[in-house]
Amino acid sequence: MKQFHAGDKVRFLSSKESGIVTSIKNGFVYVMIEDGFEIPVEPSDLVLIDLKEGKRNPFIKKNEFSNLESTIRTETSSNKTLAETNDGSGKNNSITPDGSKHKNQNQKNAEALINGIYLAFVPENQNTLISGDMEIYLINYSRWQVAFHILKSHSSKGFESISSGFIEKGDAVLIDSVSEYTLKEMAHLRLQIMCFDIRQGQLFDSEIVDIEIKTSKFIKEDIYLQNPFFDELAHIIFVHDLTHPPLSSLKKTPIQEKNSNKTASIIERFMTDNSTAEIDLHVEKLRSDYKSLHKSEILPLQISFFRQCLDAAITKQIKKVVFIHGVGAGLLKKEINDILKSYSNLEFEDASILKYGIGATEVRFI
């Protein structure tokens, strides 16, 4: 079986498309293609274009995590004093050595490490650190598996998705590569994480961390240092402590009841008479901030809203609902039809062409 790692650039044998590997799960390689969609692909259908295994999987290259794991401190209060505050908020810290020549540099850095999530900024040109492209990695230096979603903030566009996926404990993933001119776009990041402990069958609550980065510091070569994670000089920022992630709450019943009531009332906004509803699924009708959405977020949003409205129509015992989905590439219509086929208490067909054109589906409940 071919070996791939998150961050590898690959090409499809069956088509001309290419993309970046985001994760490997259940025997499939998940590839983010140019359109922003993440698709599962069999390894036999992929060819490696660009492999930088050491930088994309730093712990595999250096075997550092197994050496450092025993030095992770469970008491982080004393360790935090060893980290330099990145922005004064106490949230983001840059790990820096003290310069002593009497101790192994990586060992000293390990003693300052907190069990948690880090960002690493690694200049591709190690000879001229402040010019050229910069690779940005998310590092999971913890005892847990971590699912993540990281976004960057635009003053005019809102949040834009950068990368999402799954990081094993003691691993890292390439989340972006930027030039010296676009680095300032990384000044405001938001990280969503959820930890898992597979051995204990434990799921932890999801957390959101806002990260403020002073990108003006990146023009100074002295911020790029030797570190425990990479052979290359890098600027390492501490992001979030994962020594004791919050346990997942089991109090779900009140939330489910609230959501059920909310779903039942959704359909009322679209009633054209006592027995009929008309719902426009175009994204601009669903979200006022639709321009800030990534392409990969639009279809799941539309399908989710369709399901809510369909369930609400069944609960309210409406006779007929028309879903306006448009034409486009036909993906939304196909998803809708596949979902409707799983229901035995309804029938559906294309809605009136005279009234809706060819971009609507009529559902009748029987």
Give your account of this protein's structure.
By secondary structure, this protein is an alpha+beta fold. 22% of the residues lie in helices and 33% in strands. It has helices spanning 53-56, 58-62, 64-68, 77-80, 105-112, 253-266, 283-286, 295-316, 331-340, 353-356, and strands spanning 9-12, 18-25, 28-33, 38-41, 46-50, 84-85, 93-94, 116-123, 134-141, 145-154, 158-167, 171-178, 188-197, 202-203, 207-212, 235-241, 276-280, 320-324, 346-350, 360-365. Strands 6-7-16-8-9-12 form a six-stranded antiparallel sheet. β10 and β11 form a beta hairpin. α6 crosses α8 (295-316) and α8 (295-316) packs parallel to α9 (331-340). The relative contact order is 0.11.
Set out the fold topology.
Elements: E1 9-12, E2 18-25, E3 28-33, E4 38-41, E5 46-50, H1 53-56, H2 58-62, H3 64-68, H4 77-80, E6 84-85, E7 93-94, H5 105-112, E8 116-123, E9 134-141, E10 145-154, E11 158-167, E12 171-178, E13 188-197, E14 202-203, E15 207-212, E16 235-241, H6 253-266, E17 276-280, H7 283-286, H8 295-316, E18 320-324, H9 331-340, E19 346-350, H10 353-356, E20 360-365
Parallel strand pairs: 17-18
Antiparallel strand pairs: 1-2, 1-5, 2-3, 3-4, 6-7, 7-16, 8-9, 8-16, 9-12, 10-11, 10-13, 13-14, 13-15, 18-20, 19-20
